[in-house]
Amino acid sequence: MIKAWFKSGSPWVWLNAAAVSMSLILVVGLLILIAVRGLGHFWPKDIVEYKYNEGSQPTLIIGELVEISRMTAKEAKASGYKLPDNAKYLEQRLIKTGNRDITGADFRWIQSQYIQQESYPEDLIVIERREWGNFYGRLIAVKEKGQIIAEDDQAYTVAQQRIDRALGLFDEIEHLQKKEIGAINYALERLRLKQRRLQLEGKWNEAEEQTLAAEKASYKKSYQELQRQLSQLNEKIRRDSLVVKEAMGRTVEIPLAKVVQMLQPNAMNIVEKSWQYVVKFFDFVSEDPREANTEGGIFPAIFGTIMMVMLMAVIVTPFGVIAAVYMREYASQGLIIRIIRIAVNNLAGVPSIVYGVFGLGFFVYILGGNIDQLFFPEAAPAPVFGTPGLLWASLTLALLTLPVVIVSTEEGLARIPKSIREGSLALGATKSETLWRTVLPMASPAMMTGLILAVARAAGEVAPLMLVGVVKMAPTLPLDGNFPFLHLERKFMHLGFHIYDVGFQSPNVEAARPLVYATSLLLVIVIIGLNVFAISIRNHLREKYRALEN
Questions:
Q1: Mean pLDDT of all residues in 250-268
Q2: What single-letter DSSP state applies at residue 493?
Q3: Nearest residue to 454 via CA among 415, 399, 523, 491
Q4: Cα distance between residue 550 and residue 543, in whole Å
Q5: Residue 453: Cβ within 10 Å count
Q6: Which whole-number Å values give the CA distances from 147 to 16, 67, 161, 342, 420, in the listed order?
Q7: Does pLDDT of 53 surpass 90?
Q8: Is the distance from CB of 136 to CB of 62 less than 8 angstroms?
Q9: Which residues, listed in sequence order, are joined to residue 534 by a DSSP beta bridge?
Q10: How high is the pLDDT of residue 362?
C-alpha cells in the first residue's frame, strides 16, 4: 500500500506543496515584519516623563519609550548589575531622550527598578530639528528679534503659527538656492567651459570675449539680485526663536530656521495622530535626507533607483533580444553557438561585484576617459564621463542582467511552432518580415519575462553600484531643468545602498534602525511596482497573440 502510494507520486506533490507553502509563509512573514517595524516609525509616540533615582540625587528623564528588555537575575548579576536579593529579572528600558547637542547622545538605557514615578504630561513637546535630531522638553516662550512675544498658554499656538511661516520662508530659500541660483551657477560654468574650448581650438578672439563677457555680466546681475532676495529671506527666518526647557531644567533657545515641526503628542487624539502619520510618511518619501541619512526623507534614493532601472531596461532589452534572435534564427546551430550559450548561462552566475570591477575599469576609466579626451577636453583635469555616474551604473547592470534577457527570449522563440514561420514564408513574406511581424510579437511575452527578472535583480543590487556611480549623498538629481536636462554623468543615490549606509555606516545606530526597515519596505514596493507594470504589459501581449498561437 505504502509502496503504491510512493509510486503514484503523491508524496512528492505534497512535499513540493509544503516547500512552496513554507517559502510563502517566510516571505510574507518577512514583509509583515518589515512593514510593522518600518511603518510604525512614523506614528507620533507619546512622550514619557520619568522620575529616576539611580543614586543619591533623583533626576527627570523625558523622551520616547523605544524598547523594553529583560534578562534573568543570574544573567544580570553576571553582567555586573546590582539587583535586590528577591529580584527574579532585570528590566531595562531604552528611552529616546534626544537633545544630542546637550547630552551628547539621544538614546539612554535605564533600569525599571530605579523608576520612582512615570507620567505623560500634556505640555511635553517634541521638536524635530534640521540638526542634532529631536528636542524633548517644555515650551517656555516665543521670541521675535530677542523679545518675548508669547509665553505660558499662548506660547504653543503662536509657536505653531511662526513655525508655519518659517517653513514657507525655508521653501522659498531652498527654491532660490537649488533652482534659480543653481541654474545661474550652472550657466556660468558652461560659459567657462565654452571659453576654455575656444582657447584650445584657437578660436578665442575679441568678439567672442565681448560676447561671453556680456553674458557673464547678465548672469552676475541676476545672481546679485537673487542674493539680495536670499539675504532678506534669511533675515526674516532668523528673527524668531523658541525658548524651551529640557529635563534637567536648562533653558535653550532654538532658532525657527532649524525647526521642522513641533508636536505635543500626549495632547493629540487618534485623528490628529493619524493625520500626522500620513504627513510624516509623505515627507519621508518626498524630502531629502538629513543628519547623515538618519533623518529626513529618501526621495533622491527613490528617484535614482527608478531612473537607473529604467535606463538599464532601455539598454539591456534591445541587446538581449538581438543576441537571442541571432543565435536562434540566423546562426548555424553548431559547436560555436553551443559554446556561446554555455558562456551566457555561466555569466548569469558571476558574482555581481566582478561586474562592478569590470564596469569601473572598462566603462569609467577606459570608455569614459576617452570620451573626456575627445569631447570634453576643456573640462580637464576634472572628469566628466571619466568618473562613476548614472550612465555607467546602468550599463554595468545591463551587462549583469543581459544573460537573463537572452535566455528568456531564446526560450520564447523556441516555443513558437515552425509551422507559423513556414506559413508566413509560404504567403510570400521574407524571413525578416516573418521575424519582425510574426515571430517577435509572439515571443514578446517571453521578452517581458526576461525584463521582469532583470528589473527584479537590478533594483536590489548594491555591490557593483558602489564602484560605478552610487554615493551616500548626491547634491543634485540626475534630472533637472538645466540643459541637457538628463545628466547621465552625475552620481546618484540608490535605495539599496541607502539601506547599507544607514544600517552599517551610521554613527547613530539606534536612530537609524527604524529607517532601515522603512527604506527596505519602500525598496520592496518599488520593485513590486516595476514588476507589476512589466507583468501587466506581458499579460496584455500574451492575450493579444494567444489566438495566433492557437
A1: 92
A2: -
A3: 399
A4: 11
A5: 18
A6: 74, 41, 17, 78, 86
A7: no
A8: yes
A9: none
A10: 94
Q: pLDDT value at position 81?
A: 78
**What's the CA gap between 251 and 140, in Å, rounded?**
9
Domain extent listing, the chain: 48-123, 146-238, 299-549
**Residue range 465-484, pLDDT digits in tens:** 999 989 988 878 898 888 88
User: Which pLDDT score, from 0 to 100, does residue 474 have?
Assistant: 84
The mean pLDDT of 277-293, rounded to a whole number, is 88
Residues 48-123, CATH architecture: Roll (2.30)
Q: What is the pTM of this model?
A: 0.88
* Closest C-alpha among 111, 6, 130 to residue 61: 111
**Maximum Cα–Cα distance for the chain, whole Å?**
102
User: Of 203-217, 368-382, 501-515, which range is least confident?
Assistant: 501-515
| Stretch 81-87: mean pLDDT | 76
Q: Among the CATH numbers 3.40.50.360, 1.10.3720.10, 1.10.10.10, 3.40.50.2300, which is that of 299-549?
A: 1.10.3720.10
Instruction: Name the residue with cell 564596469.
Output: 359
pLDDT score for 546: 65
Residue 191: is it exposed, middle or buried by C-beta count within 10 angstroms (0-12/13-18/19+)?
middle
DSSP string of 232-280?
A: HHHHHHTSEEEEEE-TTS-EEEEEGGGEEEEE-GGG--HHHHHHHHHHH
